[in-house]
Amino acid sequence: MEKVVKVLSRAVPLSNEDIDTDQIIPARFLKATSREGFGENLFRDWRYNADNSPKESFVLNNATYEGSVLVAGKNFGCGSSREHAAWSLYDYGFRVVVSSFFADIFKGNALNNGLLPVQVSEDFLQELMETVKLRPDTEVEVDLVNQSISFNEFEESFEVNSYKKECLINGYDDIDYLVSIKNEIEAFEKQAITI
Amino acid sequence: MGKTLFDKVWDAHVVKQIDGGIDVLYIDRHLIHEVTSPQAFSELETRNLPLFRKEKMVATPDHNIPTKDQHLPIKDALSKHQVDRLLENCAKYDVELYGLGHPFQGIVHVIGPELGITLPGRTMVCGDSHTSTHGAFGAIAFGIGTSQVAQVMATQCLLQSKPKTMRITIDGELNKGVLAKDVILHIIAELTAAGGTGYFIEYAGAAIRSLSMEARMTVCNMSIEMGARGGMIAPDETTFDYIEGREFTPKGEAFEQAVAYWKTLHSDADAVFDQEYHFDAADIEPMITYGTNPGMGIKIKGNIPERLAASSQDSFHKSLDYMGFLPGESLMGKEINHVFIGSCTNSRIEDLRIVADYVKGKKKAAHVQAMIVPGSKQVEKQAIAEGLDLILKEAGFELREPGCSACLGMNDDKVPAGAYCVSTSNRNFEGRQGPGARTLLASPLVAAVTAVQGKIVDITEFLN
After folding, report:
1. How confident is the model at residue A120 (pLDDT cuts 50, 70, 90)?
2. Nearest Cα to B225, choosing from B179, B186, B280?
3. Which pLDDT score, from 0 to 100, does residue A189 have?
4. pLDDT of residue B310
5. Domains of chain A
6. Beta strand A69-72 with A11-14: parallel, antiparallel or unpaired?
7. Which of A17, A32, A104 is the closest to B229 by Cβ?
8. Numbers of helices and strands, H then E, in chain A
9. Which has the least CB within 10 A, A74, A88, B259, B463?
10. Could you list the residue range(s) of the whole structural domain that residue B182 is in?
11. Residues B147 and B43 occupy one common structural domain
12. What is the mean pLDDT of residues B221-225?
């Protein structure tokens, strides 16, 4: 996993609430057997018409907005457990998603792929959303070490689990750790209730 | 202080706790399917890791398979490649596989319980959010991402923060025509699509206790639709009766010993939950959804609200625009062209019986395409043994072969753009059943009545 420490970037505003993983990556694009290339179909049905021409009104097709920070409405990533949602956002170029509320499984998947979910207050989210919409050149800074997000004169701190923070900063995966404690897992198996 | 059912099962599976309050949680059973496993197998290969406990895994293709002519090679090249990869990986790592044509093949969340793989007190995971289904047996079961699938393959463990606990109690007796699907749609409409996020739910109360195992699975299945990682129900005699004698359940004395342990799996009288809700079964009526998340549900006779506290007006209107509905409108009399009965929520034998019982001697409306997809080969076999296939065929329903089908539209089973589909599945997201498709979630009974009437009606007027 790539390390994540600090991101300074312009942002893309997507104010829809309850953005589910079927919108992020529709099921019919889950037929691949590798992790690469999902960015192409990120937000596929919002981004393209049935004839594959871009929908001009969708924010990813608006050249005014760019950057590696996605700012989205509350309850982002609800629905399916498909990790392809995190892969597609990452593959497209996003490194941070800012929202006022994240679905659990999506949040875990994002953290396992170096995509940082930054949960902020509803007020901060609205301020950021409106600011970015009006001033697309606004730079957003996300500092994982200090757990802070800021733009213009606004700043807020965000929560991140201390273990996951270490993983992100050092580029470690859960699997590295779990494999390292295999002896303890085997010892657990010997005394566990097994039905 | 007493322990909750959830705490009892969780605590029995904690290998150790690490920084940040994260538990190393041991997983008893791991179900895999073709869509979320190939990248996990690749990860084992890249890292040169062996599969740790192959005997705790079961594989079946379900998401991306045709529901017609399953004896023939899969026509879609990408789907075929994905299913072939599952076969190759299972052969290479010696994982138990129920491939197409196998008598045990089916939707993972249907075959786990019917084969006796799902047992009370177990921890179970699968790369699919509806793994919450298995909680109906008093198991802790939840969906995981592909990186976690690889972790379980490599170590049989996951790193997890312990969720908070919620109990939802439903007292009283359910009204006529009200099924488990209505119960869970009612709960989600009340608590919203994000109301369970961060929690693991226990469903309790007389109305829950009165449900069959199939119905309990429907309730637990949709826990994820309010954001909860999972839902569970304490095992009881209904549970033990269902489990006894299945393919992989303990037999004889081992079964008796297991039951003695399973009887300890209930929340203690003095257990404290982080959140509690109470509902009265008498308030629950047949439900239907009108919007683009499962929290947007109403009593079928009711009206779409003018606004929704859980959504901004902008999101609410976007959702209604997609569906082609207006705030405050009633759905009564809306013409419906598609009916889908299936998915891990409602494709079990009991669901098929409910549909067949209603449509017996009737015909679907001429303009309706009605598709019914059994959850597994065993359900299909049972349906044929009971003659349900003939009843459904007579009524004009198309009975397909087992798979996830039009629940998520990965295969050819899609609803056309703009068309309305009354569906027994679990998600009404935009485009879920095909680009532009408009999904209305409902119970198998509502779906059956809709197919016959060809429009949304107050189903209680059509029941004997």
Report:
1. very high
2. B186
3. 97
4. 84
5. 6-193 (3.20.19.10)
6. parallel
7. A104
8. 8, 8
9. B463
10. 1-285
11. yes
12. 98
